[in-house]
């Protein structure tokens, strides 16, 4: 986060009081999620013992700078700032969700704290955005998520991809994507915010734009990238980078739902694969099915998740938790047994 505001510090603090006063906190393992109940925005903190104090993974002085927008029939809504959407915050068993409702849409923003491959405790966040058409008309619906990063702003490289590509100015990425993007912490190439882009369980965006936060914020939606521009927008926004994830508009029939899944957290060897978090539940579901009623597509999806998980585990140089190894063995045995059932 570079310079975003001008004016006396006292005025700045007064403006922040209503933003900071209402927070729903969920803490598990090495991660803390804070949802501002007044604005519907959130902050995410790493609680690593090595840091000594919580490390904010996104700019948190004003969490309203990270938010998502919805495009509905070419009209853009910034949900936390929009009077067209009602907001309800619900917390069930440490898994909070925000329900945004307008006359046309219901958007459920669901949060789930997760673990990376190399960690025995929770250290990341999975977020699902479920957009349902509650109107009687066909709609065109897209989503843009603006993430106000800041950890890489004091380094030579604001962002680094899993392929070790440095991003130091305006850039647009399209498929095929790297597995993740890292906003690296100052003086450290192996810590910071890790945003998963291309792994099972994460919705692949149509494009990812890296640019100055102020420019992206003022663009509302579409943005023309100029690779000659830096992350500064003088005179008030200097060295201030951000990421915008674009999920292009798609037709949404009455009653239909569009699901967008995201995952991010502190840097971890092997990264995050949110699809694997529910593998044990999927195993139980499959074992409870008779072979005549089993769903082959579900089992094919499970095989793909298994392959992706093994691939990522092979790339990490850290010790794999025994619990993870046992889970994978159980999954392999389950799939072998189901294969034999279908061959009978």
Task: Write up what this structure looks like.
This protein has 2 domains: 258 residues, Glycoside hydrolase, family 65, N-terminal domain (Beta-galactosidase, Chain A, domain 5); 70 residues. With 344 residues, it is α+β, with helices and mostly antiparallel strands. It is 20% helix and 34% strand. Helix 3 runs parallel beside helix 5 and helix 4 runs antiparallel to helix 5. A hairpin with a 4-residue loop joins strand 12 and strand 13. The protein is built from 5 helices and 19 strands. It has a 9-stranded antiparallel beta sheet with strand order 7-8-9-10-19-16-15-12-13, with no helix packed on it. Strands 6-5-11-18-17-14 form a 6-stranded antiparallel beta sheet.
Assign a percent range to the helix content: 10-25%
Low-confidence stretches: 3-20
Total E-strand runs: 19
Number of domains: 2
Structural class: alpha+beta
Overall 3D geometry? globular
* Separate helix tally: 5
Please report the distance between the alpha carbons of the first and last residues: 61 Å
Strand arrangement in the largest pleated sheet: 7-8-9-10-19-16-15-12-13
CATH architecture group name of the largest domain: Distorted Sandwich
What is the CATH superfamily label of the largest domain?
Glycoside hydrolase, family 65, N-terminal domain
The value of Rg in angstroms is: 21 Å
Give the CATH level 1 class of the largest domain: Mainly Beta
Order of helices and strands: HEEEEEEEEEEEEEEEEEHEEHHH
For the biggest sheet, the summary is: 9 strands, antiparallel
- CATH fold-level topology of the largest domain: Beta-galactosidase, Chain A, domain 5
